[in-house]
Amino acid sequence: MKIIQAYRCEYCPRTRPYVTPRAIAAHESRCFHNPETHSCATCENLRHSHKPGARKGYVTDAWSCTADAPLAPLTTNCPAWKPQVSYEF
Ligand SMILES: [Zn+2]
Predict the structure, then answer these.
(1) pLDDT digits (tens, 9 = 90+) for 1-41
(2) N or C: which end of the chain has fewer CB within 10 A?
(3) SS3 of 61, please?
(4) Which residue range(s) make up the domain with 42?
């Protein structure tokens, strides 16, 4: 067994570790939880609510954008992005 050095994202510590500094830098540059990428995940315009689920009596997550920008949590560089004041994960 060998002990290795690895790196985790500063913004989403739940992700898997990366072995090289280059790999973690690449991840952080596009991480949806990095405020610098201006994604929905860190935007003040993102609202969370619930809607009826597929099964009766169950609810599921519903996300909306108060700026009416296309809601796309899996993208970056939204022109309507603004810093989320109470951002926590
Ligand atoms: Zn990350």
Answers:
(1) 999 999 999 999 777 899 999 999 999 999 989 999 999 88
(2) N
(3) strand
(4) 1-67
